[in-house]
């Protein structure tokens, strides 16, 4: 038997029985590659957060609506081709960059905990949206699917949890934009889709032009940018402020509150007296010829936190004000039944008959007007006990016949919900009133965000929108979304304007939620296509 000897030169790395030694240092090239990957991930994370900040900056009170497509183009650059987990993380960062400044007003009087909790929850939904966009970005014509996924994310936020929180829809930042008429065509879902498609298409145009300059693909991709802009311009004839049913002279009263913050609630009688005083002053101005006589008057939400059915003094001073002005007045009141939840109620008050019809707010604000999981929430903030008795929701739309004009009530938070506004118009409203109370949010941007939302609703349904607010900004908005007049914040005032009455329905009013459902199907179709590709790939393997 012969033996063999394996010779080494001394230059090879030493071996163990199990292969190369584990303590061999990584090569410099490997270190550089790992560092590059970390640097690229950090850059993407920063750009994703920046895209959220740019999206926030596109919202009122800044007239920078055009920033929204660029913000989404930047986000698309971060998400395109990424894995699902990376898409979720980048989407979450974008959501935080967007919503932390947008919703900072939610912590104005109760501290940072509710603000941070709400923002984080809503940002998680945007994280899921980012995950979906990253997945569909592998498909042909992916901007279409990605824009539909964005709408799906907004639809989810508008419904869950606790009834949803639609604040911050892309559509609500576009009151001054070229895309705005899309709201009259397909509601806020179509408007959001148009803005998202333009943004994602913009990124794809740049990507395609860089990789395939001069090719037909770049020109075709440009349609994803041009199509929503063209559709918005083409839909402009749908936006009309013609007086189909004549006109009415309306008055919006802003009585103001004695002081800022949550403590205004302890001054309930002072708030009521302020609105009575300003209405009586309007009546004196009418008699003196300083103001035209209104056909109807609308007070804000919570203008009487004293129940006029149970408090004789409240009933008496309201009746005094209504008789002084001599026309029907819609009064925002808190009604406290002997049993059951409180009611946030609008009361139609006639100068002869007194209180007649009522409308109970249907969309009750969670953690504001009602406290879900009260015992759990109390662990994080004792402010929940300021809401000692929850409000309960109404069931039916409220349309008041006010001196021959049909005025639909959409109370404050309800204006964020498509179905609440649409059902009121379908119930026969010729004018929409959005009585609100923003006093608890001080001088924050919340009131301007809500005003922009009301402008979108005016265009969506081609209706005048009256916005009486306890502390401002109150406004009169024409059916084309233009503000006729508005008040200063924390100033007692009354706005009087002649507005068109309209009964025609826009396509958005007629088709209702169908555009949103169609876009949800488009998003589902994209996910289905991906799943089918994966199944076929595995079978082939």
UniProtKB/TrEMBL annotation:
Pathway: Protein modification; lipoprotein biosynthesis (N-acyl transfer). InterPro entries: Apolipo_AcylTrfase (IPR004563), C-N_Hydrolase (IPR003010), C-N_Hydrolase_sf (IPR036526), LNT_N (IPR045378). Its EC number is 2.3.1.269. Its main location: membrane. SUPFAM superfamilies: Carbon-nitrogen hydrolase. Residues 248-501 form the CN hydrolase domain. Residues 1-17 have a biased composition (Polar residues). It is a multi-pass membrane protein. Keywords: Acyltransferase, Cell membrane, Membrane, Transferase, Transmembrane, Transmembrane helix. PANTHER family: APOLIPOPROTEIN N-ACYLTRANSFERASE (PTHR38686). This is Apolipoprotein N-acyltransferase. It comes from Streptomyces nojiriensis. The gene is lnt_1.
